[in-house]
Every structure is written in C-alpha cells, then in structure tokens.
Amino acid sequence: MPDLLIRNAVLEGSRTDALIADGVFTDIRPGIDAPAGVETLDADGFILAPAFYNAHTHSAMSIMRGLADDLRLETWLNEHIWPFEAKLTEEDVRRGVLLAAEEMIRSGTVLFNDMYWMPDVALRVADEIGMRAVIGPCLISNPLAKFTRAEELEEAYREAAHPELLALSYAPHAVYSTDERLLRDTAEKARDNGRFIHIHASETRAEVEGCVHEHGMTPVAWIDKCGLLTDRTILAHGVHLADDDIRLIRDKGAVVVHNPCSNYKLCSGQFDFRRVFEEGGCRVALGTDGCASNNSLSLFDEMKFAALNAKIQSGDPECGKAEDVWRIATRGGAQAFGLDAGEIAVGRLGDAILLDPSVPALNPSRNLASALVYAADTSCVDTVVCAGRVLMRGRTMCAL
Ligand SMILES: [Zn+2]
Predict the structure, then answer these.
(1) 90-106 vs 119-129: helix axis angle to the nearest 10?
(2) 3 state SS of 242
C-alpha cells in the first residue's frame, strides 16, 4: 500500500498534516516531516473528512439508469429488470461497474457492498481501481442463477492484486426468491469461512406478508431460523420490522442498511430510524441500492433523505440528527464490514476525502455534519483517498 502525507488540510477547524503509512493513519498534527520516498499531497486548506461507505448496492445496474422508472417494485423487477438482465453480457456488467465506481468515487465513497450477477467482474474492476469492495455471488432460485458465477468469483479473489481491500460475502437475494435449502446451505458455508451475508430483508409489506403466509414468521425471523442472522449479516432495507425483529437484529449484532431514496422511489415504505437506530440500538449503515431504483449512487442524497425521512416518520424534527446520519454513512458503514475506518484519527484506516471549502454549500463553515447532510452535494468532493491511494485529485479521476 502506498504511503501518503497530506499537508495543510483543515481538520475540525485547525490546520494539520496527516500521514498514512501501510494503509493506516499513523500521525496527525501540524508540521510532519515527510519520510523519504513518501508521496506528498498539498491539501491547500481543503477540509479533511472521513470517506463514505456504501453498504448496499448493485453496482452494474448503473447501465439501467432510467430504464424503468415510476413502477411498483414487483412490476419493475418482474417485467423490466429481470428480462433485461436475462440478456446481460460480461461487457455490460464491466461497463456498469466502471460507471458506478466513477460515480461513487466522485461522491467520496471508497467502499461498496455489492450484490449482482457475474460478481467476479465487479471484484476485478474494484481491484484494478484500488477501491474497497465486499462482493458475493447473488444466490437465487430462478433462471438468472446462471449468472451467479461463484467459482469465478473465488478465482478473481485469489488473483486480486489488492486482497486487503476486498472481502467476500454470500448474497442470497431475498426470502421470496430463495428456498430454505439454499438459505441453510449458505448459512453453513458462511459459518465455516466467516464470510459476510448480504440479503434484502423486509423491504416491502408484501414481502413480509408473503413470508408470514409461507413460513409463519417475518423475513428476519425466517433468516434467523435458517441460521443466517449473525454479526456478519447485512440486511438491506429493513423497512417493515416488527419489535421482535429489531430485538433479534440487535441481539445478533446484524447490520441494517437504510436505503432511503430507493425506499421512497419504489414506495417501499419509511424506515423507522428512531425505533431501529436511536431507541432500538441496532447497527445501521447507509446504502444507495442500485441505480435502477434510485437513480444515483451518491451518499449525499441518502444522508439528506435519511435525516428528512426520520423526522417525517417520527413526527419529531429532533429525530435523525445530522451528526448521527453522517456517522452511519461513514463510521457505521466501515464498521459494518469490520473495518476500523470512517474517522480521521491515528490508528484508523487511511481513507479520507478532501472537501473544497469554497463551495457555497459548505459556507459559512459552522457545522460540517449539518453542511454535509443538509446542503452539500458531490461537487464539494475534491480528492478521494482509499488506504493511502489517491483515487481522485482535483476532481480528476486518478484510478480510471
Ligand atoms: Zn437492493
């Protein structure tokens, strides 16, 4: 991993330098002498802040942006997305992941947790760029399973140049698209090799009703009964959670990924930030979902929607504080994947962004969390650093 000295940045209102060595912040103070051979980046008074972690997406779906808007989830999936995907080529997936990676980096994101077909392609793209990714084979009981390519993913991981930036998961699609055998087999494999589990859970009311009808319990309870609910389980959406679900998720240490824009666009419902996070004590991260249901991969949008959604849902403007929302998009997202990152501090992984202080949305510079959640957009992000590697500098992509 390259070492990097960031000079003349502004951290919490004060000028500082920050040294990243072997992918970790090892020194943060003014006047650090550059060790021999270390790349130096002059931040020129730009604001040093934690990078973002996109905890649920389907990166290659960026090629489907605008393909089928303004539809119900079942119609969107069954009549548009799955028929389109039946004809996917490897080149389509590669172009989609590249497009997504650029969009994510431009918006300050250094990690994406991906669930999609031909996952080996996404892993190879992330590895070429030097971006963090958690990638699993999308497991499903339908004809698209031909694109699962679990063995090819293992091979891509073995051949990766930057394995320290990558992690593997298993990604059973959802309770309505998998059977019990598949879920139990997946749980056993994940127990054996310690990989993450990534599954859509309680996204719509119809999903919950269908699961209760078929299995006599909620999707979260069913996922747990099949052995899949652990502290390495990432539950995407969690919009319709019963009190027992929330207790179960908290007790097992699983992570719920809030995807507010997708939930709004598909009318899936309103995530209960207060009941799940503020009072429920669950681990929560933020995700964009795929581009076909969002249609953006910027966590800036998600942060603003998450804060506003929390207020409307609870009827209380004190719910969904900017600090909390910024925290789940940064530290919460990193910790979901076992990474000690998402903060600018000695000992944390060397991921960071530099924000342009001249952008109007960041002025006056009163409260950075407030500015980032309520006012900022991707145009504020000037530079992106992942494990000491510069992925974007002066809004020019270095990695693509
Ligand atoms: Zn999704």
Answers:
(1) 40
(2) coil
Contact in structure between 276 and 282 (CB atoms under 8 Å):
yes
> What is the 131 CA–ligand 1 centroid distance (Å)?
20
Q: Rounded to the nearest whole angstrom, what is the distance from the C-alpha of residue 198 to the centroid of ligand 1?
A: 10
The DSSP output letter for 75 is: H
Distance from the alpha carbon of residue 318 to the mean position of ligand 1, in angstroms? 29
Cis peptide before 54 (omega within 30 of 0): no
Q: In whole angstroms, what separates CA 218 from the centre of its chain?
A: 25
Q: How far is the C-alpha of 293 from the C-alpha of 43, rounded, in Å?
A: 36
Provide the 10 A C-beta neighbour count for residue 134. 27
Q: Which residues surround ligand 1, an ion (CB under 5 A)?
A: 289
- The owner of tokens 């589990």 is 197
At a CB cut-off of 8 Å and minimum separation 6, what does 77 contact?
A: none
> Per residue in 76-129, pLDDT tens?
888 998 899 999 999 999 999 999 999 999 999 999 999 999 999 999 999 999
> Which residue is listed with tokens 């719910």?
319
- Cα(145) to ligand 1 centroid in Å equals 16
Written as one letter, the residue type at 339 is: L
The contacts of residue 114 (CB under 8 Å, 6+ apart) are 57, 58, 59, 122, 133, 134, 135, 136
> CA–CA separation, 289 vs 257, rounded Å?
9
The structure tokens listed for 122 are: 């996404």
Q: What is the DSSP letter of 35?
A: P
Residue that is written with structure tokens 């063995």 in the block: 151
**Burial, 78: exposed, middle or buried (Cβ in 10 Å; 0-12, 13-18, 19+)?**
exposed
Cα within 13 Å of Cα(387), Cβ side:
20
The Å distance, Cα 243 to ligand 1 centre, comes to 23
260 C-beta neighbours (distance < 10 Å), count? 30
- pLDDT tens-digit map of 340-385: 999 999 999 999 999 999 999 999 989 999 999 999 999 999 999 9
Find residue 336's DSSP bridge partners.
Answer: none
Report how far ligand 1's centroid is from the alpha carbon of 395 (Å): 28
Half-sphere exposure of 395 (CA within 13 A, CB side): 8
Other Cβ atoms closer than 10 A to 2: 17
Q: Which amino acid is at 14?
A: S
